[in-house]
Specification:
The chain has a single domain, classed as Alpha-Beta Plaits (2-Layer Sandwich). Helix content is about 20%, strand content about 20%.
Amino acid sequence: MNQQVYNWQIGRKMSYPHAEAHPEWQFAFCFNLNRCIGCQTCTMACKSTWTFSKGQEQMWWNNVETKPYGGYPQFWDVKVLQLLEEANPGAQKWARKGEEFTFEGKTIFEAAEKRVGLEPERVLGYLPTDEEWRFPNIYEDTAVSRKGKPMTFDPEGTKLPEHKTRFFYLARICNHCTYPGCLAACPRNAIYKRHEDGIVLIDQERCRGYRKCVAACPYKKVMYRPTTHISEKCIACYPRIEGNDPATKGMPIQTRCMTACIGQIRLQGLVRINKDGSWAEDRYNPLYYLIRVAKVALPLYPQFGTEPNGYYIPPRWVPRGYLRQMFGPGLDEALEKYRVPDRELLAVLQLYQRTKEIIVRYEIKEGKKVYETVIHGKPFTLYNDTIVGYNKEGKEIVRTQVEEPFYVRPDKHQNSI
């Protein structure tokens, strides 16, 4: 029988097959999609570390897909959204109450309750075909645009500042959800969420390869390995999170995909969780600030109901309607804050990819005013503040400025002619 659990991302209680329980700390991350260049360096870093063996050829725990057409497996999100709409026609809507939003539709757990078959379903989902798993970068760099007319050209096709064609890169790993669909669907109880950091893992001795988890995960981040007949998934590089990896020197460091990112789009860490599942206030934790204070980072498809712990700063140039479906109703406020960042937000954004160690606290040291201007009709002032990041022992691990230093090479140097 389903339990009632509170999901803060949808603003209400919802049905879930297990009783509410929460970890002490939660692994979480924040990706800035405005910076992603689709280089796939993160993808190959993960692949070469975890999924290079026989039977793992189709496993891409980290992937970067081109939206709106790309996806791995193909059209994974469109199919889940369609299933939810069919289960609750015309009622998958959000309602605003003051500054908060409530999802009035049905989650993947609630929609499954209406399905009647040979055996009851715990989670609404589907099992991708082999063809859908074959191409991890299908439709890469494919843009959407207006249809052209034969023997003519579109005089507004490249009109600035808004282009008629667009696409963006969506980097994805397992979200290590608060209410995982894979965990809910497993009939063997082989999937569990670690108490110390909220990382979701599969007990491979208990798994029998039923693939219920593959069908149930709405993000399709659990994958079946035919050579061993069990499922596997992203493990959040937990030896690095624990500080047990040889490269960590005892300190928690970021995952392989995070540290390999050359676009500087990724910030990852741990947030403290209260017993009731709410985030403990930690004002100067960079993740807490971006997600709960500035609110510029949003969950991916919060209407699924899994309360994912992966968050995204949405791309500025994509139509708002498309992004609202993907990131929820907080999209407009998040984009406005990011387009014209305040002093603190601009400083915190400098912490991305500045160190391998996990930053648990930051401090801003005010600098001089550089200039004033107007951006999108709003006043903007740039200050050259210094932001300092500290690890879990309170040791300074990074110090950087808002304005990047500018070096002038001397006239006489080693390669002078």
